[in-house]
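Can't attach files on this board, so I'm pasting raw text. These are the components:
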Amino acid sequence: MAAGRWDGELNDTGTFKHRAAGWIREGMRIRFQDGTAREYDGGPATASDVLAAIGLNPSAVIVSRDGMVIPEDATLGRDDEIRVIRVSHGG
Amino acid sequence: MASGTRAPACSRCGEAAIYLDRTTGKHLCGDHLVRDVGERVGLTIRGYRLIRPGDRIAVALSGGKDSTALLHLLSGIAPGIGDVTLTAVTVDEGIAGYRDATLHAARETAAALGIGHRVVSFRDTPGSTLDAMVAAGGERPCSLCGIHRRRALGEAAAALGATALATGHNLNDEAQTVVMNALRGDLPRFTRPPVREAPGGGIRRIKPLFRIPEKEIALYGIVTGIFRELPECPYAGTALRSEARRVVDRLEQLHPGSLARIVSGQEEVAASWGRIAASGDGIIPPEEARAGRKPRDPFSPA
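---
Top answer:
C-alpha cells for the assembled complex are below.
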C-alpha cells in the first residue's frame, strides 16, 4: 500500500477497518487543515454531531467528504473520512 | 460516500446540498449558494446606496477569503451601476510567516480579475513592520495593526482619488464588533450606524458583505474556486475579538439567526439614538459628552 493511501476491510461487526502506516482504526477519520487527524469512534451521526463531539462549532467550520462539501446535517458513516476547514479565524 | 449515509438535497433544485441555512432550515447547492450570496450583496449595495454611479472604489484586499470574495463580487456588480472603477489595495504590515502568502494571493486575485492593485507597506508608513513594533512592546498587536492599517488604507484610497473604501467585513465581524463595543462600554461606537456618510464629503467606508455570514462567504469562495487555505495571523489569538468570535459563533449555533439579530438590533439602536440626539431632548451625544459637554441641570433656572 502506498504511503498516505487508505484501504479498508470489513471486520466482524460489519464496519470497515482502515489500515495505514501500520495502524488500524475502526472509526471515522477526521482530517484538519494543519495536517493532523483524529478519529471519531461513535456510530453514524450528522456532521454537526461529530463536530460538536470533538469540540468544534459547526457554524465556524466547513466539512467535506470525498472532496465534496457537505452541509452540517449530512449523515456520516463510521467508515467515512471527512476534512474540516476552519472558516472563522483572525487575519 | 459510505453506504447508508445521507446527503441532503438543495431546496431549490434537488442537487446535492453543500449548505444548511439554519435560520430558514433550507439547503442550498453550490450554484444556488453563489447566486444567493450575489443577490444579497447586490441588495445590500442598492438598499444602502453603498456604491453610486461614478464612484472610484478602493477595495481593501488582504488576500484572505472575505476581501477576495468582495473583490470577486464587486467586479461583477460594479459594472451594472455605471462608471464605477475598482482598485485593490493591500497593506503589507510586515508579519513574518503570514503576510507573504496572503500578499501573493492578493496579487494573483487582482491580476486574474484584471483589477489594478496597489501595495502599501508599514515599512513606509508608519516606518516599521508590525513585528518590530510588537517586539518593541507597548500596545497590543491588533490595536497597533488596526490603527496603522486603517490609516494606510485611508491614505492609499486618498492617493487613488477614491470616493469610497470597501472592506470585506462580514456579518460575523459586525456582530463581534457590537459585542466588543458593549463589553468595553464604548457608547459612541455602540451607537454608530453601520452605514453612514463620510463627514465633510470624504471617502465613504463601505462594507458590502456586512449582511453575509462568514461561512457563506467561505463557501462562495470554495464554489467559485477563489478560496485558498492561508495561514492565520500569528497575533489573532491575542485579541479581544477572538473571545467575541467564540461567543457569537456559539450563540449562532445555539440560536440560529443570532448574528443577524445582533447586527440588526444595533442598527436600530443607532437609528433611535440618532433621532434622540437630533431632538435635543436633554441627551448629550457621546462624542460631545467626551468633549466635556454636560447635560442641562433640570432643577436650575434656564
